[in-house]
């Protein structure tokens, strides 16, 4: 099969493409950096700029849309918020317009989203796909990103799946790459009060979720891609410290996070206890449902 993938040079996209190449599929990566694509996949994929998608002559069997400016790395200035939106909402709109111009009729359009869709929930009740979201920047961003992706159903006749992803844990990138330096030095610990929920997923399960949605042609709509066992930030810190055999008691005060990240600190200071109800109902089995084992396999 021939799949078109945006965000293919990223943490999730790279792992997904390696899996799909091993399975013998053909991949075209939509990227701003063709040289990075060539380096990562050693010439095994094609690459194309977003504005050139309409020129793709080969039949596209499915689209996986993962592009987006990193969300936690920098303070959310108005300009940054605009970039976070453009690289997801506007990008997705343009991608679908390009596919329509090419008269592409992919069977599926699987699009990234995030558990930020639910907004910041103080309470501990597990959130499933039908749970009521709380308004705020991350909810509005994910809502609009998902709304654009759903247009692929109307405009291209594609089956649309929205992957509401939790914190992805894996080797060589994502959240763990940022957490490991202080934890390795014994300087890690809970953030703020530590009682905020962290809904996480192992990278390998995230890829399996995308593969599962690709293969199951009756599935459509939103899916929480998180382990069934979300934990509090305090438990996460203790577990990571335990796996690394390091002390993890140095609490990062809330005001320091706010000074460092401004509004973006809400991603770390507030949380959601998300439950993958629809995936489990559909028969998906997590390889790493347990945090300790997932961390052991991510380090
Ligand atoms: P990465 O940051 O690793 O990669 C994202 C990719 O998006 C990049 O490789 C880049 O591709 C592309 N991109 C970045 N900025 C822009 C831009 N301004 N315009 C167009 N394309 C851009 O992300 P992940 O792989 O970690 O995540 C993939 C998606 O899943 C993201 O949208 C992310 O928000 C979402 N997600 C990830 C989570 C995680 O824990 N990793 C959690 C929840 C959601 P190139 O440079 O080739 O153009």
Automatic annotation (TrEMBL):
Residues 4-216 form the NAD-dependent epimerase/dehydratase domain. Residues 252-297 form the DUF1731 domain. It holds the Pfam family Epimerase. It comes from the Bacteria. Belongs to the NAD(P)-dependent epimerase/dehydratase family. SDR39U1 subfamily. NCBIfam families: yfcH. This is Epimerase.
């Amino acid at each position: 099969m021939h799949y078109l993938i945006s965000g293919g040079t990223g943490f999730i996209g790279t792992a997904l493409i390696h899996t799909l190449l091993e399975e013998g599929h053909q991949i075209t990566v939509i990227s701003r950096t063709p040289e990075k694509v060539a380096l990562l996949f050693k010439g095994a994929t094609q690459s194309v700029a977003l504005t050139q998608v309409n020129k793709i002559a080969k039949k596209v069997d499915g689209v996986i849309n993962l592009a987006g400016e990193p969300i936690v790395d920098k303070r959310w200035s108005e300009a940054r918020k605009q970039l976070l939106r453009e690289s997801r909402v506007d990008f997705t709109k343009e991608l679908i317009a390009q596919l329509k111009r090419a008269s592409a009729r992919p069977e599926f359009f699987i699009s990234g989203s995030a558990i930020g869709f639910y907004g910041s929930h103080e309470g501990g009740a597990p959130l499933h796909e039908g749970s009521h979201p709380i308004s705020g920047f991350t909810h509005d961003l994910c809502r609009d990103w998902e709304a654009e992706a759903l247009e692929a159903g109307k405009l291209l006749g594609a089956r649309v799946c929205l992957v509401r992803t939790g914190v992805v844990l894996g080797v060589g990138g994502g959240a763990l790459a940022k957490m490991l330096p202080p934890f390795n030095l014994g300087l890690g610990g809970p953030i703020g009060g530590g009682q905020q929920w962290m809904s996480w997923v192992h990278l390998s399960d995230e890829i399996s979720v995308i593969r599962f949605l690709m293969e199951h042609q009756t599935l459509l709509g939103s899916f929480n891609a998180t382990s069934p066992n979300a934990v509090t930030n305090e438990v996460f810190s203790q577990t990571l410290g335990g796996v690394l055999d390091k002390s993890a008691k140095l609490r990062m005060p809330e005001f320091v996070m706010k000074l460092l990240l401004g509004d973006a600190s809400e991603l770390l200071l507030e949380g959601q206890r998300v439950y993958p109800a629809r995936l489990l109902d559909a028969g998906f089995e997590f390889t790493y449902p347990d945090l300790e084992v997932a961390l052991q396999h991510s380090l």
